[in-house]
């Protein structure tokens, strides 16, 4: 059986997009089933994105501290919150990801405000 891209099909059901999550199996457009390894890689990629974003929040505080400045209470609280967030993101275990349901169930920590 040859699988076609959804982009090659003339009409699509509602809710289907061409971002690679759907395939045409010869008869129907169906959601693509990703292997556990691919889902784990996607989770690691999302972790990296979140960590990079969080690290950007630390730059000003780190620079101030390196220059010998004192952080305000609000700055200290924000710095601690971002460090806690980074710890929580790093602590996530993706070894339990076996399918889309377990991937979707990842309890990502909420970014500090």
* Whole-angstrom Rg: 21 Å
Tell how many strands the DSSP assignment holds: 3
**What's the number of helices?**
3
> What is the global morphology?
elongated
Largest sheet: 3 strands, antiparallel
What is the domain tally?
2
Question: What proportion of the residues is helical, as a percent range?
Answer: 40-55%
- Major sheet strand order: 1-2-3
Give the termini distance in whole angstroms. Answer: 50 Å
Which structural class fits the helix and strand makeup?
mainly alpha
Mean pLDDT: 89
Report the sheet-strand fraction.
Answer: 5-15%
Features:
single chain, 113 residues, mainly alpha, 2 domains, three-stranded antiparallel beta sheet, elongated, Tail fiber assembly protein
Secondary structure layout:
Blueprint: E1 4-5, E2 22-24, E3 29-31, H1 36-66, H2 73-91, H3 100-104
Antiparallel strand pairs: 1-2, 2-3
Description:
InterPro entries: Phage_T4_Gp38_tail_assem (IPR003458). This is Tail fiber assembly protein. It comes from Escherichia coli. The structure is a single chain. The chain has 113 residues and is mainly α. The protein folds into 2 domains: 32 residues, no CATH class; 69 residues. It has 3 helices and 3 strands, in the order βββααα. It has a 3-stranded antiparallel beta sheet with strand order 1-2-3, with no helix packed on it. Strand 2 and strand 3 form a beta hairpin. Helix 1 runs antiparallel to helix 2.
């Amino acid at each position: 059986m040859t699988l076609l891209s959804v982009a090659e099909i003339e009409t699509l059901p509602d809710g289907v997009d061409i971002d690679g999550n759907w395939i045409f199996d010869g008869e129907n457009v169906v959601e693509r089933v990703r292997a556990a390894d691919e889902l784990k890689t996607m989770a690691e990629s999302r972790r990296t994105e979140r960590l990079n974003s969080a690290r950007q929040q630390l730059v000003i505080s780190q620079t101030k501290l390196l220059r010998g400045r004192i952080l305000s209470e609000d700055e200290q609280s924000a710095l601690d919150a971002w460090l806690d967030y980074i710890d929580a993101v790093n602590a996530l275990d993706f070894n339990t990801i076996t399918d889309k349901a377990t991937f979707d169930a990842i309890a990502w920590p909420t970014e500090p405000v």
